[in-house]
Write a structure and sequence with these properties.
The complex is a heterodimer of chains A (343) and B (267).
Chain A: H1 2-18, H2 49-60, H3 72-75, H4 95-98, H5 126-132, H6 140-150, H7 154-162, H8 169-182, H9 189-194, H10 202-214, E1 229-230, H11 245-248, E2 257-258, H12 280-290, E3 302-303, E4 306-307, H13 313-324, H14 329-332
Antiparallel strand pairs in A: 1-2, 3-4
Helix pairs in contact in A: 2-7, 2-8, 10-13
Chain B: H1 2-26, E1 30-40, E2 43-44, E3 54-55, E4 61-78, E5 83-85, E6 96-100, E7 108-114, E8 117-126, H2 130-133, E9 149-150, E10 155-164, E11 174-180, E12 196-201, E13 207-209, E14 216-222, H3 223-227, E15 241-242, H4 249-252, H5 255-258, E16 259-265
Parallel strand pairs in B: 1-14, 11-15
Antiparallel strand pairs in B: 1-2, 1-7, 3-4, 4-5, 4-6, 4-8, 4-10, 8-12, 8-13, 9-10, 10-11, 14-16
Classes of the chains: A mainly alpha (343), B alpha+beta (267).
């Protein structure tokens, strides 16, 4: 994995120096200084303006769903960092997808594992699930490609994005990935603080300190996730959703879920894989009072006899103040990510 | 203006020509065909028969409605030990082949521009390995629109066989074995990797690749050996719908033993 990263970086760097004109378009993938290196295979699918704009259209177009009724944007809304504010369980898609809460889409280029159980290992493959909504797909992806071919304007858009005369599923997935890779959220108050452009209030600073002490091991780096799978004590039994075990088929992974990024967390309610909590207060009350023991409970949440994290009411207030500094208005208002069909 | 055009066209012609002559230099070798012949014991495999003409080791009758598998990373070994590798492209447009019993043409893989010589063994992979899946969206034989892509646990189905048997208690008496699972993670050794790479010897015979020859290597895949081998002896009476890497780990162990090089057509 590290090798690919280095490669990607080399490609990115050489890409820049090779260009005759200096890159000054806002559709170039930008790497925030406080982030770890991206892992997406940019060598195969670099971001271009035409590609990302095509991806943006596809993202907002219900043509991708089986019955042309639902777009990606139904469940992933920009105002809330592309999470789903309405449905605890996503609506309209059955089986595998239907029993989980739609997470935010942000900083995807830096992520190795997708979905709450990490069932998908590459961003390109994520949309296939949504498009087909069956555990195993039939020829429906093919049908979407046929629909795009018959459309009045898509063939031209695909041609300008990929310089080829045919539309393939690969191009469709590439365009969506280009769009999602562009979705970098790195201009929250916290980022500005890290870049020394602004100060945090006393309360926020103390919240950050509490966060560093109790939460940072799992919600690590400035992506606020260590990209691992852990059980944070939501349940004692996992009949409803075995989490990571669905993928690894290993009982030691039962009840483990991907540690989610906490960027824009004030906006992405409801929380957890099943959207069981509506407020950050409830989340913190969970960590302090409601952590349940089970064989796979993370050791960090089981110190000696006591379960969970000791947090006073005052500490919770500070923590929440800090978590709110992770909201990124630039991101939720960025025109490049808005609905292109509403002008 | 005209002048520019003619200069341009000369330049274009030039490019064309040099491309052509380049090709000719590269094509000193010839062609070899790998033919995949799917059988059930001593019978030829016929799909979608109305009766259930075949029997497994547990005396359970069955028919087959679907049989398909990915062949990739083909390597040919010459008498002198040198190895020819079929080129693989990272976007799946070359080096990956989907053999589908229902599609006669898919059952022959034609390898072109192979250096001349006598070839004595072939090595290939059944499945689509991590190095490929980790490259992202694929095309060609690996286009996920072909329906062999697991969406919830992403990766390809390497080999799928479906059919019916009266012994099978699933809906419609249907059995389905979808072998997949490519993931490896140094931090988690529980991920099942069902990728199989193996070598088939031409058993003393050799395939002579030269200008006027187009040897065919006739490879047999025996469904009965897929159901009974070193990995498992499958009964349709239980667990006959298998769609996860672990569920197919044992039957995947039968894959290598189900393939054999039967004979070589020299030209």
């Amino acid at each position: 994995m590290r090798f690919t990263t280095v490669l990607t970086l080399i490609l990115l760097v050489s890409g820049c120096t090779d260009d005759v004109e200096p890159v000054k378009n806002s559709y170039a993938f930008e790497m925030p200084a406080n982030f770890p290196a991206p892992v997406y295979t940019f060598g195969n699918n670099p971001v271009s303006r035409a590609g990302a704009e095509l991806g943006q259209m596809l993202f907002y177009d219900p043509v991708l769903s089986l019955d042309s009724s639902i777009a990606c944007a139904n469940c992933h809304q920009q105002a809330v960092a592309f999470s789903d504010p309405v449905h605890r369980f996503s609506r309209g898609v059955d089986d595998a997808v239907g029993f989980r809460n739609a997470p935010a889409i942000q900083n995807m280029a830096f992520q190795n594992n997708f979905f709450w159980d990490g069932g998908v290992k590459h961003l390109d493959f994520v949309p296939i699930n949504a498009v087909t909504s069956k555990i195993e797909m039939a020829e429906t992806l093919d049908q979407v490609v046929q629909k795009l071919k018959r459309s009045k304007f898509y063939p031209e858009k695909f041609r300008s994005a990929f310089q080829e005369d045919q539309i393939t599923s690969q191009q469709m997935l590439y365009a969506l990935s280009q769009f999602m890779n562009l979705m970098v959220s790195a201009n929250s108050k916290y980022d500005q603080y890290v870049r020394k452009e602004t100060d945090l209030t006393k309360e926020e600073t103390e919240g950050l300190e509490i966060f560093e002490a109790h939460c940072r091991t799992c919600h690590a780096t400035d992506l606020f996730t260590d990209d691992s799978f852990r059980n944070n004590g939501l349940d004692a039994g996992f009949e409803k959703d075995a989490g990571r075990e669905r993928i690894t088929e290993f009982s030691g992974d039962r009840g483990k879920f991907k540690v989610p990024s906490l960027r824009n967390v004030d906006l992405t309610s409801p929380y957890m894989h099943d959207g069981r909590f509506n407020t950050l207060q409830q989340v913190l009350d969970h960590y302090s009072n409601m952590v349940k023991d089970s064989e796979t409970l993370d050791p960090l949440l089981k110190q000696g006899e006591s379960l969970g994290i000791v947090l006073s009411a005052e500490e919770k207030v500070k923590l929440i103040a800090f978590l709110k500094t992770l909201s990124d208005e630039t991101f939720t208002h960025d025109k490049r990510f808005a609905n292109p069909f509403i002008k | 203006m005209k002048k520019i055009f003619s200069i341009l066209s000369i330049a274009i012609l030039f490019v064309f020509f040099s491309a052509c002559s380049d090709d000719e230099v590269g094509s000193s070798g010839s062609t070899l065909v790998l033919e995949f012949d799917n059988v059930v014991g001593t019978s030829n495999l016929v799909l979608n028969t109305t009766d259930q003409p075949y029997t497994n080791d547990h005396e359970e009758a069955f028919n087959v409605t679907w049989l398909t598998y990915y062949v990739s990373n083909i390597k040919l070994k010459r008498e002198d030990g040198t190895i020819y590798e079929d080129a693989v492209k990272s976007d799946g447009s070359a080096g990956y082949y989907l053999i589908d019993e229902a599609d006669v043409e898919s059952r022959e893989i034609t390898l072109k521009n192979i250096p001349a010589g006598n070839y004595t063994e072939v090595t290939f992979t059944i499945g689509v390995d991590a190095s490929q899946v980790d490259q992202g969206a694929q095309t060609g034989a690996l286009d996920p629109a072909k329906g062999l892509f697991w969406t919830w646990n992403s990766g390809y189905i390497f080999m799928a066989i479906q059919g019916t048997s009266p012994a099978c208690t699933e809906e419609g008496n249907e059995f389905a074995y979808h072998v997949g699972g490519y993931k490896e993670d140094p931090e988690n050794d529980n991920l099942i990797n069902n990728i199989k790479t193996f070598t088939l010897s031409f058993k003393g015979d050799s395939a002579p690749v030269k200008a006027s020859h187009e040897p065919q290597v006739h490879i047999i895949f025996d469904v009965l050996k897929f159901f009974k081998g070193t990995g498992a002896n499958i009964s349709f009476a239980s667990n006959a719908q298998r769609h996860t890497p672990k569920a197919c780990e044992d039957i995947a162990g039968n894959i290598e033993g189900a393939f054999v090089v039967d004979h070589i057509h020299a030209d």
